[in-house]
Amino acid sequence: MPVRNPILDVPLMDIMRSEIALPLQQMLHLYNVGSFLKAWGNPKNQRSIEEVFDSPEQAHHAAAVCAAWLGVKIAVGHDPNLGWWWPADDGRHMEA
Does residue 56 register a pLDDT over 50? Predict the structure, then answer.
């Protein structure tokens, strides 16, 4: 029996800003990396997910990063002007 990758169970609240993670949980019922990636794999869900992020490109970047943690490559451009989706960038979670 294959072992489930523990990354799949990481809560979105632990890796995304709360203003992104909470709507994903409340509206789309996506609570962890595994459910996020599974939903992202369906093109119908992608648009709904993109609407929660600051931009569609930001959503694509988040999906690419989560997939990379599992060893899966998703092509995505990187433009630092798009803003960030993980919690450490907002200053409140940063430690000295």
Answer: yes
- Please give the model's pTM, rounded to 2 decimal places: 0.76
Instruction: Produce one character per residue of 42-69: b if its CB has 16 or more CB atoms within 10 Å, e if not.
Output: eeeebebbbebbeeebbbbbbbbebbee
Domain boundaries, the chain: 6-90
Instruction: Say how many C-beta atoms besides its own lie within 10 A of residue 25's C-beta.
Output: 18
Q: Which long-range contacts (CB under 8 A, 24 or more apart) does 77-82 make?
A: 82/54, 82/55, 82/57, 82/58
- Amino acid 68 reads A
